[in-house]
Amino acid sequence: MIVKDEEDVLARCLDSIQETYDELIVVDTGSTDKTVEIAKTYTDKVYTFEWVYDFSAARNYAFSLSECDFLMWLDADDVLDETNRQALKALKNSLTADVDMVMMPYVAAFDEEGKPTLSYERERIVRRTANFSWVGAVHEVIVPRGNVVHSDVSVFHKKIRPAEAGRNLKIFQKMLADGKTPDERQKFYYARELFDNGLYDAAVTAYSEFLNGDGWVENKICACRDLSACFCKKNMPKQALAALFKSFELDSPRAETCCDLGAFYMQHAMYGRAVFWYKLALNLKPDLTTGAFVFADCYGYIPAIQLCVCYDRLGQLQKAQKYNELAGRFKPNNASYLHNKQYFDKILKNKGNEQ
């Protein structure tokens, strides 16, 4: 684990993984709060590493300090619930010497009830003697190889405060200023940082260059969605629509893209077209083993609640009510579903009084 100024979350993380490890290594990269003090109450293996604007360098240093057969990484704002803590203990005891890497779900966003809304697989455990290395100064990764095992043990990423504004973009800018050439994955994330920082013209250029390269197809599909969002910010609807359709040249439709298309047509009051894309989204299933970002609500709640709105705007109230009830099966306590339910109950009551 590498840390910096994590006094508000570190104990929560380390408490959640008690009895799952043989060795706990914490590498501090320049904390000015009580992070180091807290870490030392859990382990005597607390080290310092001079920050060099490179997350991979820090993580590789942390890996180099261990002599265990298998290495697992966590961020300070990660946690395991009790179910996954026990499952991790069982997984640890089942690992054999021929396993090189274990991929595990990373749950990164939650709805108001704490249910996962964004998850993707990450390389979580590696065999030390396989000599894996982290690559990438920011949005770092270990490239999978060898005997890769997929586990359903989930790690929950629960931020309580945003990252330092512009931090990642500054790292990319320093890397480029130093004459370093980003790989295809880094090009994708550089474009994302430009977009997240409101630099839409630069983001359009960066995404377009990435899409013309040899990047991973899942990143390219995300890039099409992000590029469309850039064009929407620039009030360029034709280009926004074209970017979404471009993703279909890469692979079969994803529900996330279909929901984007539904939202586009709703924004332009083309409710019949929006219905088509939201219905398609409802019929698709996520693949949780590709490592792609999966927004769970796009495969259920979002298309259902939006179909309710579309059919209401089209004057087809029975269909609208049907899809609102479907949305309620996904999220029975959701405010939008409950508001719509009251709306339809009132309409039905008025119709009954008229009769």
UniProtKB/TrEMBL annotation:
Write down the PANTHER family for this protein, in alphabetical order.
GLYCOSYLTRANSFERASE, POLY-BETA-1,6-N-ACETYL-D-GLUCOSAMINE SYNTHASE
In terms of domain of life, where is this protein from? Bacteria
Q: Which part of the chain is the Glycosyltransferase 2-like domain? A: 1-132
CDD domains membership:
Beta4Glucosyltransferase
Keywords of the record, alphabetical order, are: TPR repeat, Transferase
Which PROSITE patterns is this protein grouped with? TPR (PS50005)
Q: What is this protein called?
A: Glycosyltransferase family 2 protein
Does this UniProt record's set of keywords contain Transferase? yes
Q: Which Gene Ontology MF annotations are present?
A: transferase activity
- Organism of derivation: Candidatus Borkfalkia ceftriaxoniphila
